[in-house]
């Protein structure tokens, strides 16, 4: 069974052209799940049944994994099974009828505008601080995914036009506006970029202290560190800035389709979760302003 993993990952990489970050997630989930199937004396894919799969998920549940993590593991297994069926290595679907535990639909957590402003009040001239503020400004200005920011090359950024071209999920390109403040801090960073490397062959926009393309983990760690240093009571990570961008854009414009395009969502239903956040905001305003609401609250 283990021997099927490498060809499947190659399929994701070369045919579906998924990002390394996404492929690593698939690999992690499958390596978590396969041993639990093999513990049930399943040695060949042809021996696998829905009962085996359900028992493996139950084991993950007993180990304390969240419903969301279990759902990700099942989704990864379904993708592998579908690949085996496409390549005629498996004739049946052992995941048929298998269900992960029900999970709630958590709303994306975002920072409010004041929290974002406080986070971005970095005035240090230290090259690392300037680089980090440029990254955070770009995350919030343009709603980038972590993988999109890490994968940016110098030639993708046009500060004169105030735009950046990113490569999103499914290898799809989109052109995004970059705000004035983000452009200013990106310009400052580019002036200091030679402090990170003298190599003219390095094409990455954002560099680590070692002079190489900055890693996903490094970006996550730096944002978390700045959130703590700036005294925010919420943990800061790249997706939180993307969520904040989406929420603030929707609250200001009400244009769901435009926000969908900016975020690079293939399906409008993915973007619609932000309407729940917007409704929550409107409900709060209503509760504070409507006469009958105030009467009800004062009773």
Q: How would you portray this structure in words?
A:
This protein is mainly alpha-helical. It folds into two domains: 2-86, DNA polymerase, domain 1, CATH 1.10.150; 113-284, Intergrase catalytic core (hpI Integrase, Chain A), CATH 1.10.443. The chain has 14 helices and three strands. It has a three-stranded antiparallel β-sheet with strand order 1-2-3, with no helix packed on it. A hairpin with a 4-residue loop joins strand 1 (157-158) and strand 2. Helix 6 (127-142) runs antiparallel to helix 8 and helix 6 (127-142) packs across helix 10 (238-253). The model is unreliable at 295-299 (pLDDT under 50).
What attributes characterize this protein structure?
mainly alpha, single chain, cell cycle, hpI Integrase, Chain A, elongated, 4% strand, 14 helices, DNA-binding, three-stranded antiparallel β-sheet, 299 residues, DNA polymerase, domain 1, 2 domains, cytoplasm
């Amino acid at each position: 069974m283990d021997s099927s993993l490498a060809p499947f990952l190659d399929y994701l990489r070369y045919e579906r052209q998924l990002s390394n970050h996404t492929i690593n997630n698939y690999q992690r989930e499958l390596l978590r799940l396969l041993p639990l199937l093999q513990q049930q004396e399943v040695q060949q894919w042809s021996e696998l049944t829905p009962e085996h799969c359900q028992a493996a998920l139950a084991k993950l549940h007993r180990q304390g994994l969240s419903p969301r993590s279990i759902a990700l593991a099942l989704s990864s297994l379904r993708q592998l099974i579908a690949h085996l069926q496409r390549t005629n290595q498996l004739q049946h679907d052992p995941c048929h009828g298998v269900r992960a535990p029900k999970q709630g639909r958590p709303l994306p957590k975002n920072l409010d505008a004041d929290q974002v402003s406080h986070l971005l009040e970095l005035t240090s001239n230290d090259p690392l601080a300037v680089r980090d503020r440029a990254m955070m400004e770009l995350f919030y200005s343009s709603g980038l995914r972590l993988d999109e920011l890490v994968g940016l090359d110098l030639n993708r950024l046009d500060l004169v036009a105030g735009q950046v071209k990113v490569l999103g999920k499914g290898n799809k390109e989109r052109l995004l506006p970059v705000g004035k403040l983000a452009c200013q801090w990106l310009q400052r960073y580019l002036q200091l970029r030679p402090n990170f490397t003298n190599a003219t062959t390095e094409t990455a926009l954002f560099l680590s202290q070692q002079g190489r393309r900055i890693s996903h983990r490094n970006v996550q760690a730096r944002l978390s560190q700045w959130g703590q240093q700036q005294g925010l009571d919420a943990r800061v990570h790249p997706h939180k800035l993307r969520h904040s961008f989406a929420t603030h854009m929707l609250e200001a414009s009400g244009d769901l389709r435009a926000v969908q395009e900016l975020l690079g969502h293939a399906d409008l239903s993915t973007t619609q979760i932000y309407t729940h956040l917007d409704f929550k905001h409107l409900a709060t305003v209503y509760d504070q302003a409507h006469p009958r609401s105030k009467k009800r609250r004062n009773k």
